[in-house]
Amino acid sequence: MPENYRLSEHFVAKEFVCRCGSPDCELSDPSVIYNKINPVLVEKLEQLRITINTPITITSGARCQNKQIQIYKERYGEFWERHIVWDSQHLVNSKNQFNASDCITNYNMFKFVMMSAYFRFNGVGYYQRQLSSNELVDYFVHLDVGGGLRFYRKVYSF
What we know:
By secondary structure, this protein is α+β, with helices and mostly antiparallel strands. The chain has one domain: Muramoyl-pentapeptide Carboxypeptidase, domain 2 (2-Layer Sandwich), CATH 3.30.1380. Helix content is 30%, strand content 23%. The chain contains 5 helices and 5 strands; from the N terminus they run H-H-E-H-H-E-H-E-E-E. The protein has helices spanning 30-36, 39-52, 65-76, 80-83, 109-118; strands spanning 56-60, 100-105, 123-130, 136-144, 150-157. Strands 1-2-4-3-5 form a 5-stranded mixed β-sheet, with helices on one face. The longest helix is centred in the N-terminal third of the chain and has 14 residues, at 39-52. It starts with 29 loop residues before the first helix and ends with a strand. The relative contact order is 0.16. The mean pLDDT is 88.
């Protein structure tokens, strides 16, 4: 295994670990991530990073089921069970891999999303979170290499 579990020139496994905070979560270990990340995801992220010549920060990679539940409880409160996605590309699948990352960058967001589609990520999602109709809090882009081709935009209000 490469030093520090390097996945490519610009990405290391530590960036993709589960952020649930549990000491018992195996997906919090970079050595596990190194073996469970879909190499096609890394290859496409690296190609995108080189092309835009701007850092890409991974904000979410692999997730355990507890982290998936935590995220949906934060987004939807008491109605989280109506919305939760149990076949998320962030979860380890039957092939023992995960296929997704959420990320942010200082690169122009429209161009970043279009370049992501150009590199044929299967899933490209642009998400915004806002406190009110006029105040944008933050954004992130979801990129994955699993499932069928899809493109989406979603705004969450808090």
